[in-house]
Amino acid sequence: MCKLVRLTSAFVALMTHPAVAQQSPSDVPVARNTQAQAIDRYGDSLPKGAMLRLGTLRLRHRQEVEAVAFSPDGKMLASAGWDEAVRLWDVTDGKPIGALANSFSEGALGIAFSPDGTKLASTGVAGNVRLWEVASRKLIFEKKGHEGRAQGIAFSPDGQRLASAGNNLCVWDATTGAEVFNFKAPGAVRDSQGIAFSPDGKLLACSFGPAVQIWNAQSGTSSLVIPKAHAADSTSLSFLDDHTLVSGGYHYISIKVDGRPVLHSIGEVRLWDVATGKQLGELTPGDSKDANCSIAVSKDGRLVAAAFREKIRIWDAKSRKQVRVLADYRNAWFRRAHALCFSPDGKLLAVTSGRSTILLWDLTTGKRFLDFPESHSHRIDSISYSPDSNRLLTGSTDGTVRLWDAHSATQSRAFKFGSGLVSGVTSAAISPDGKTIAAGGYDDTGPGLTGLWKTWDLATGKERRAQEVPDRVQAVAFSPDGKTLAVGTGTPDFLKPQFQLQGKTAPADAIHLWNAETGAKGAALTGHSGFQGWLAFSQDGKILASTGEDGKVAVWKFPSGQKASQFKIRGRRPQSAAFSGDGKIMVASPFGDTLSVWDLAGGEELRTMHTAGSKGSILALSPDDRLLAAGSIALTEHAENLDGRIHLWEMATAREVLQLAPDSSTVSLAFSPDGRTLVSGLGNGTALTWNVKPARPVKALDTRELERLWSELAGGDAARAYSAVCILAASQATVSFLQAHLAPAPAVTKTDAEALIANLGSDKFSVRQAAYAKLEKLAENVTPFLREALLNNPSLEVRLRIESLLVAARVVHSPETLRRLRAIQVLEGIGSKEARAVLTTIAGGFPAGRETQDARASLHRLRKRTQ
Question: Burial of 365 by CB count in 10 Å (0-12 exposed, 13-18 middle, 19+ buried)?
Answer without folding.
Answer: exposed
